[in-house]
Design goal:
Helices cover about 45% and strands about 15% of the residues. By secondary structure, it is α/β, with parallel strands linked by helices. It has a five-stranded parallel sheet with strand order 6-5-7-9-8, with helices on both faces. Strands 2-1-3-4 form a four-stranded parallel sheet, sandwiched between helices. Strand 3, helix 5 (about 95-105) and strand 4 (about 110) form a beta-alpha-beta unit. The site of iron/sulfur cluster has 12 residues, from loops. Iron/sulfur cluster (SF4) binds near residues 223 and 311.
Length: about 350
């Protein structure tokens, strides 16, 4: 389990704690500056009765210094739903902050940067989902949580990378529409033994084949899209005993060539609970740094160079400004919120 210092309000004490964990990763002068900013955030957070939720992809100094809770999107959605604080600051991207607002609408939910989007969430619109429903009437729609609220509102149920297979199986349906991640859909189809198709918007290619059980969408995470089987072959040549963990947003070929594939939280548990000579994570690179800092006795290969440009927008400076100015507030029209919340709550009930 990862421990953070989100209640620490002494800059000096915070600096020493961060230094112990991150001396190899963050230069000393930067750690000092960040410890001062983080201490100010933690004091203000207490004064304003706020909670900070930090996604596993936050940069290491932020990740360890200010969140009260860290985790993957499912974990943080649960924490958002359960909090009794007045303000929720989401150190993650917009769709995550929206999910917090869906589940706890009476709270003020703040996202520190307006630029923290997501290539997957941007790949599909609510109208796209309505069009798929017209093409495939009666087929249930499963939507990955990496989507905006209006898309969730058009869905029957949401899923995350940790529960996607369980959600699909729970529907007991011959066919499901699974949106919008092409690779996650491919990985779920493989695991559930389903044949998947990717219809285009052209109705002529819509449903003339009956030989499918899953309908996908060509959305991709711009980070996980970059890992290739060739990368894995090259790494194994250099380090034959490496254990490779791939996020299910990587292509099915990359997942098949890896040793283990699961959500970010499950990857953290895997590294904690196993004893391999060395590990390599095929996911956002800040998370590799965060796991390495929490497991100093394990050797993690630092070959990652792929930082999510959206997660990267969230900084300590912007989080401080967010608390001071109460920006940027997440607002969702009530009719959309109610329908989207229903899809997320159905998922949470499954686990
Ligand atoms: S890592 Fe991929 S899925 Fe996650 S926010 Fe960035 S672009 Fe979106």
């Amino acid at each position: 389990m990862i421990t953070t210092f989100g209640t620490e309000t002494s800059a000096d004490s915070l600096y020493h704690k961060l230094k112990e964990m991150l001396a190899d990763v963050v230069p000393d002068f930067e750690l000092r500056l960040k410890a001062e900013q983080a201490a100010e955030i933690n004091a203000l957070k207490r004064e304003k009765n706020a909670v900070i939720l930090g996604h596993n992809y936050m940069e290491p100094a932020l990740f360890y210094s200010i969140p009260d809770f860290v985790g993957d999107s499912l974990d943080l959605a649960r924490k958002a739903a359960a909090t009794d604080k007045d303000i929720i600051i989401f150190c993650g991207v917009r769709f995550m902050a929206e999910t917090a607002k869906l589940l706890n609408p009476s709270k003020m939910v703040l996202l520190p940067s307006e630029k923290a989007g997501c290539s997957l969430a941007a790949s599909i619109t609510a109208e796209d989902v309505r069009e798929l429903r017209r093409q495939f009437p009666g087929v249930p729609v499963v939507t990955y949580v990496n989507t905006y609220a209006d898309v969730k509102a058009e869905s029957d149920i949401c899923c995350t990378s940790s529960n996607a297979v369980a959600v699909v199986n729970s529907l007991n349906a011959d066919t499901v529409i699974f949106l919008p991640d092409e690779f996650l859909a491919g990985n779920v189809a493989k695991e559930t033994g389903r044949h998947i198709i990717f219809p285009t918007k052209d109705p002529r290619h819509a449903s003339d084949s009956l030989d499918y059980q899953m309908i996908g969408w060509p959305g991709r995470c711009e980070v996980h899209d970059k890992f290739t089987v060739e990368d894995i072959i090259n790494i194994r040549k250099q380090f034959p005993d490496v254990v490779i963990l791939a996020h299910p947003e990587c292509s099915p070929e990359v997942v098949a060539a890896s040793d283990y594939s699961a959500s970010t939280n499950a990857m953290i548990r895997y590294v904690e609970q196993t004893k391999a000579p060395r590990y390599l994570l095929l996911t956002e690179c800040s998370m590799g740094e965060n796991i390495a800092a929490a497991n100093p006795d394990k050797e993690m290969l630092r070959l990652c160079s792929i930082r999510c440009p959206h997660m990267n927008q969230i900084t300590l400076e912007d989080t401080l400004a967010s608390l001071q100015k109460l920006q940027y507030q997440i607002e969702i029209p009530e009719d959309i919120r109610v329908r989207a919340a229903r899809a997320v709550e159905r998922m949470i009930a499954i686990g």
